[in-house]
Amino acid sequence: MKSIIIASWLLLSSVGLYAQTSASPTLPVDTETKRVTYTGVVAVDGVSQNELYTRAKLWLFLTFDEAKDVVKVDEKDAGLLIIRAYTDLPVRSSQSDFEPTNREVGYTMMLNFKDGRYKYTLTNYNLVVEGRTIPIEKEITAQLSKPKDKGVFAAQQYAEKVGIYAKSLAQSLDVTLHKPVSGENDW
Predict the structure, then answer these.
(1) Does the N-terminal or the C-terminal CB of the chain have fewer CB atoms within 10 Å?
(2) So where are the chain's domains?
(3) CATH classification (class only), 24-177
(4) E strand or H helix at 131, and its extent?
């Protein structure tokens, strides 16, 4: 009797494994630009536009080695910073790859400031391959079009890593923009 129960359990377990299919990755895509876009509006009560701008500049210098090089638009009076930066994302091309390969990915981050709040937008993700830039959406689509789900894993890797990186940037920005950088401090 025990062997029948164990055999039934093994059979049902293996059916469950085969029933799992690779899901296509889902990413937030802007309806107008058709580009992967992460955005959010964050309240910072009682903080002026100028102070938020100053805190964001501090965040830039804490986050990027060459902060001056990544800033493309710097309009303090308008409350606007636009950043173009690159990062290496560790991506495994297939499940059999034990070590991920770093893939260079460029992106644009736009920061808007108003009294008591700021908005961040991360978009224009491009994979850099042999000096060429390929929109991340195009790379994911190319991976998904490979036969027999061969590229689904790689597509999921790109989607997952881009999402993790976007979330970590937004979180580090949030931490810095909620801390005062000017005024009197107790030393």
Answers:
(1) C
(2) 24-177
(3) alpha beta
(4) none
